Amino acid sequence: MYHYPLPEQAIIDGFRMGDAAIIREYFYGYCSVGYAIFDQRYQLHQKQNLDFMSLAHQYALYLMEHDWKPLEDHSPAVSLRTWLINGFRYVVLDALKWHKKEYGSITFEDYLRSFDPSSNLRLQFNQMVEDVCNHAPLSRDERLLIDMLLLQGYKSKEVAARLGMTPSAISQKYKKLRDEIIVPYFRKYFDMTLETPEVMDEQSLVQAEEMSMPAPSLSGALENMSAEPVCRYMNFKHEENMEKKRTTPAMITSLEPNEIFVFGSNLKGMHGGGAAYIAYRKFGAIMGQGVGLQGQSYGIPTMQGGVETIRPYVDEFIAFARQHPELTFLVTRIGCGIAGFTDEEIAPLFAEAHDAENIVLPPNW
């Protein structure tokens, strides 16, 4: 154990080089703080596959795939610990979304925070909001209020001063506009529901650190590992899961070169939430393309009507998969999120896929 704090860059360099001691103390140590906080809120330890090590390994795999760069890019105003734990929080939220259907998704504000403000996806989001506003019966002040609060990030008191209203009145008016105009649009076209707490701040983490619990297996499985075995252990577990894939795993964090992530999309190709968002951020889905192969993903539209409107796209997908036996297609539970269909309604559409060796379906499909 390090008895003095390492500089943040030294910690990240240690992660990148696979230093087992640094990974154990800082990566797993910081994640254990986050797990203790989120476990109190969501009773993670009571849910299958939501134990600390499973979630921490998911996060580690993601960071390793990106050479730990997401940590290196953290804001100077936020400590590495806070930044890392907030990243771990999104792993927890994603895992909870996939855990049965007892958990929704994220608040609208959290949804916005999940975008890098400089990213193409955030620019696309802003354009969608502007398009919604262009077609909504908004006054000049209402449009300005949405633009300043939602798109530009001003505080209520700053907008209040501009419009000659009280901050409380601004907040109430914005909430009404958001809930009646903006949110329904995203509920309709994207796989998002609304309800979780805010992003953890520095003070919250300081107060919560006393609750942190060491991962049960840290002193065992990881204690004597050198740097190289730590990385091998993580990859081995992932490869082992992928080899058992006659059913699609609930969480997919990476793909082999010949694997394709099959997700439910919408005809406009606005990949703003759920599996579509994962496909966009990680597997090459193209904003604006709603159907077919794109990078290492394949979109099947599910938002355009009833089950029968989905069938032609499923048939097209199955035919495409048969034409490409060199690829393996991992089908997620398309249509069973915000589209509102059940497994019993969607699974029969894939009956012809059962004898296709390169199509992997969700459990019980």
Could you please describe the fold and organization of this structure?
- This protein is mostly helical and about 375 residues long.
- Helices cover about 55% and strands about 5% of the residues.
- It is built from 16 helices and 5 strands.
- Strands 2-3-1-4-5 form a 5-stranded mixed beta sheet, sandwiched between helices.
- Strand 2 (about 290-295) and strand 3 (about 295-300) form a beta hairpin.
Task: Summarize this entry quickly.
The chain has 365 residues and is mainly alpha-helical.
Per-chain topology:
Blueprint: H1 8-17, H2 20-42, H3 52-65, H4 69-72, H5 80-98, H6 108-113, H7 120-134, H8 140-151, H9 156-163, H10 167-189, H11 202-208, H12 218-222, H13 227-243, E1 259-265, H14 274-282, E2 292-294, E3 297-301, H15 307-323, E4 328-331, H16 343-346, E5 359-360
